[in-house]
Model the fold of this input.
Amino acid sequence: MNPPPEERHSRFRAWLDSRTGLDSLLRHALDEPIPGGAKIAYVFGSGLLFLFVSQIVTGVFLAMYYVPSADHAHTTVEYITKEVTSGSFLRGLHAYGSSAIIIVLLLHITQTFLYGSYKGRRELVWLAGCVLLMLMLGMAFTGYLLPWDQKAYFATTVGTNILSELPWIGNALKRLLRGGTEMGTLTLSRFFVLHVFLIPAFIFAFVAIHVYFFRKSGAAGPIGEDPLEPKLQSEPFYPKQLVMDMGFTILIIVALGIIAYFWPTELGPKADPSDTQFLPRPEWYYIPVFQYLKYWHGSTSLIGILLIPGIVGLLLVTVPFFDRSLERRPWKRPVSVGLFAVILLALGGLGLLSHREDLRNPGLAAQLKAQRDATKEFMQAKFEPELSGGSLLAENAALANPGAAKGKEIFEGQSCNACHGDNGVGTAAAPKLIGVGEKYTSTQIEVLLQKPNEQMTAGGMPPVNLKDDEMKALIDYLRSLK
Amino acid sequence: MPFLEPPNDKAPDGKNRRSFLAALLAAGSATVGVLLAVPVIRFTLHPVLARTTEKSWSDVGKIQEFQSLNAPIKRLVSIEEQDGWRKTLIEKPVYVSKDTRGGLIVLSAVCPHLGCTVPWLEKESKFICPCHRGVFSADGTLLGGPPPRNMDRLRSKIEGGILKTQYQFFRQLTHNEEELA
Done:
């Protein structure tokens, strides 16, 4: 007699578990104790993990149509945006997904900071998180270039130019990243490899490290909790916290879906390096940095570009090393919380300042409007496929040389094309003539035309008798077939 | 059997709530999965489903040019082949001629025998293939030689005063026209 379904199910689980250890692994993951119980405030980490997975899924599928070359990148992104079913939507999910990651990162960091969750042997969790922040910013920077439109090209030109402000190694670093002194197809390849292979590999590794260290030290719990020896009654991660995390995830994907559907990501006209008017503006999350860098020129640039961001960055990264008290309530930690607030406010202020400058300066405002209009116009234009390099190749070559153009008339007038095909592509009856100029000299061709060899005669090739100038034109034409 | 532990070791009173939340989670995961999977699948299937199997029409020339036609006239038509985000342009020769009732027809210049390009010979007032001397009349009717059928007629139409054709390759050496994709 067959066992009831429930028992069969549990027997399968036991079979699987004895071979994989899946049950204990799952139990370990789901039974993570949260001191003080589940809270909405803890959903941001899971939200980030989901967004990263979503970026991988959408990114992998976008790569199905994308070509990372300066020749084709823009056309393929235009094809995705205008032609492929759901292409605009999927690209929107990916592009807005990067903004969502920055927003949720900010929330995650702010929550961690306000809750003092980096305290109590959690330095390495914080450090791994800082590395992840840098990697995510790197993803945003490298991904921005890939569509190869005007704003991508010029924003990245500016972004990579900043590197050359660094002392000693600045220029070498810039050349390394660009694959040369100028932006070009090699830059695009490098950014593609960084965006698709290298940085994601590091993100995988650091997510694992971040989560492992987090589980090792345990969840810190609410602000009143002792970060080293939790006193509050704990609740497992599953199911309540997981349900909250899931709710947040659904909120993210639904919001992204609505935005991507109703406000499709735009694509501007193809990058034109000779454009001297274009005003580059980075994505919104880089605007504060962009504005900040405007203030530093010449001799002071070292202070502004290296020293100040270096100190601020170092302070942020090393915060768990010097802020060592176990006090977690934000109102009892005025210095660290104040510093954090100042940095956030400064970034926000710089962003607003940049926005105001663009609005107030009529020259800038007009140019930016012209750029937006150009983008709108481009988005409305019908997709025009790229003309492949092999198109009409023989004709192009023939028409480049007037003698050859006359030869083409003779070729067709003598019905050579009847057997050798139009433009000498060959048919079942006679071989192709493309490349004949590389095999024989002009004299050899003339001899063969006037007195075909045995093999040619057997195939039905008649001797060709033409006036000298006509013969020369015909040979010019034959030589032009490549 | 020691590894056969009961699947549910939770307190009985919390069991209902937990299974409700588990169902909620399953529904949530399914929602997220579907929201991502639907566009991804549509995106992937685009070349399979939205394939434009319809052949494009190429311009042959203005209708006036062919009004007083008394012999077939050769024209090159550009054929655009779209391949995803790129296109290839190739040119193929066709003949514009008249059928027995005086209507315009477009003939493929490819010989149905072995695929040579058939020239119109003014002197003989016939199409004569130089490869194996297949002979056709002005409207492409087979008059003699090894070809198994008449010259192939291409679909054509007149639109806005312009003669257009749908270029097409045909299988060689068969008695009936067989279109090749």
Observations:
- Chain B has a mean pLDDT of 84.
- The two ends of chain B are 65 Å apart (CA to CA).
- Helices of chain B lie at 12-49.
